[in-house]
């Protein structure tokens, strides 16, 4: 079906705006995936703040011009689903990796972060990144560890004195 020029411009502008604000993009071949599965994927993507775009390759190439995702232009071959992570760089990678485990027809073609294009086999590099909450938790634990150790050390001094006094008392009691 032919798309009017105005519609093409709108599609390019929408994808360009999405790419401009995205932290990462994952590309996948969705051939052979049922519409029911794609609907479930789209619902999960909305809850994870991942924007899925299925756009003609020529329009996608134009849309990513001027963004840090220009590197994906050569990889846009065949039916391509673009998944843009908007808040968490690893969200799209985790989402599509999990979906690919359940759907054998779904194939991850590649991903891009910070202007660097990586193959689909590199999906774990991005999928294993901690979420913002996990990263903050780890930072809090690392920051809290020295303070906890210092408190234990300060608490140990009175305990040692108490044990020493008790030992001297017991020794004098035994001597008497």
Automatic annotation (TrEMBL):
InterPro entries: Ribosomal_uL10, Ribosomal_uL10-like_sf, Ribosomal_uL10_bac, Ribosomal_uL10_bac_type. Signal peptide: none annotated. GO terms for molecular function: large ribosomal subunit rRNA binding. GO terms for cellular component: ribonucleoprotein complex; ribosome. Keywords: Ribonucleoprotein, Ribosomal protein, RNA-binding, rRNA-binding. The keyword RNA-binding applies. One of its GO terms (biological process) is translation. Forms part of the ribosomal stalk, playing a central role in the interaction of the ribosome with GTP-bound translation factors. This is Large ribosomal subunit protein uL10. The gene is rplJ.
């Amino acid at each position: 079906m032919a798309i009017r020029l105005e519609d093409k411009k709108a599609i390019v502008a929408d994808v360009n705006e999405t790419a401009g604000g995205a932290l990462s993009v994952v590309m996948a071949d969705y051939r052979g995936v049922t519409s029911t599965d794609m609907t479930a994927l789209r619902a999960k993507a909305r809850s994870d703040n991942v924007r899925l775009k299925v756009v003609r390759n020529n329009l996608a190439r134009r849309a990513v011009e001027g963004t840090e995702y220009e590197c994906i232009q050569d990889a846009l071959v065949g039916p391509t689903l673009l998944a843009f992570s908007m808040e968490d760089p690893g969200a799209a990678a985790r989402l599509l990796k999990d979906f690919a485990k359940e759907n054998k027809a779904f194939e991850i073609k590649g991903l891009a972060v910070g202007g660097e294009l990586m193959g689909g086999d590199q999906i774990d590099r991005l999928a294993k990144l901690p979420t913002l909450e996990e990263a903050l938790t780890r930072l809090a634990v690392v920051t809290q560890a020295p303070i906890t150790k210092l408190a234990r050390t300060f608490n140990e001094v009175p305990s040692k004195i108490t044990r020493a006094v008790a030992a001297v008392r017991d020794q004098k009691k035994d001597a008497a």
